[in-house]
Fold this protein.
Amino acid sequence: MLALALPVLAEESLTMLVGYTDWWLAGHFLAGAEYKAAMGLMSYVLWLLPSMFAAVAIGATALIARFVGAGDRDAARRVAHQALLLGLVLTFVVLAAVLLGGRSLVHIMQLEGRAAELAVRYIWILTPVIPAIMLEQVGVACLRGAGDTVSGFVAKSIVNVVNLVVSALLVVGPGNIPKLGWEGLAIGTACGHGLGGLLVLGLLIRGRAGMRLELAGMRPDRELIRRLWRIGMPGGVDVLAVLGCHFVYLAIINSLGVAAAAAHGLGVQIEALAYLTCYAFHVAASTMTGQLLGAGESRRATRCAIEACFVGGAMLTAAALVFYFAGAWLAGFFTGDIHDPTAMAAGKLLKIVAFSTPPLAVMMVLTGSLRGAGDTRWPLVVTFVGLIAVRLPLACWFAWESFQVPGLDITVTGLGLGVAGAWWAMVIDVVLRSILLIYRFWQGRWKEMAV
């Protein structure tokens, strides 16, 4: 479990370091709350673009893990080829969506004025590397299903160093290097993803963990594509539903003003410390569950998931203590002043989120286990219940002074707690979803899923 999780944890830590660097550069060299508000939205956009390929990635990991566990590497390689082919088709869809709707997305998110224009410029610079983002997501998912989590770490290490260096140089502009400011951050991110896609493609062409990309294997196989989509589609819809609800959640917060948007964006970036730890054990649980079920060892698959919950939960409890007692200091590091209004507001939000980090570990790990087993529908149902029925209504009620129920001529008086109220709604949602997933896992029906 640790052999699978730790490389992913290191990989995601490097990715987080780039986000932290961008926030630090924006906080120290780009004055104004507009930059922080735009950065908050860009954090979600950089989550959105890889998530567009989640259905293919989830299906590829589950199928490849099952075939590798059963000792059928040839079938696993065929799945990898079909996953990349399907990912290529989706790339054109995503490119069209971004080109046609990128500006509209920014305005829907309630950003206005200079902050909105900054966000649009960032999106246009990032658009050309969307094919490389697909290669990163789907290619690394194939390697993880085969049990190789190290290659993704090596590729991301190089990518993130390039991203960090280019962004820093173009924002600061030392010597004869042009000082591009905000555009420099976007160019650095684009360079990192572009190189990342090429590196993953090179690894697959050369061959890693039995996964080797060959041109002859790229012929469409309708049956494998159907299986990939059947398994991955609920998980992909789950991821996109989470993301869609998060965008609505962000719009609720952005409607409270630029200061609230900036505090939320910084708080989310710091809270990613917890999320990336959960994600590492999510990947390990998904890979091991799929491989062990493929080998007919359902009892070990159960034990694997429980161990991942305990280890991930222990690490997230430590993170919760850091958020609660040192959140304000962490926020002040990024703004350059612990008394900065954005830092002080973000520090209060981190005290709130500390209560949800241990349940977050359980939720993420069990979601990974169920997906690795091919049980992708139940996490989708839990997502809809938690986000749509709990988080979003409570966020409106807790954050706003009043709001009108959509489709009904009813005005509800809210608690008016602002951005803090929206974060309490998030805590309640995470706790509820973790309980529902424990129930599904305890039933044991995921062990009988056919892929």
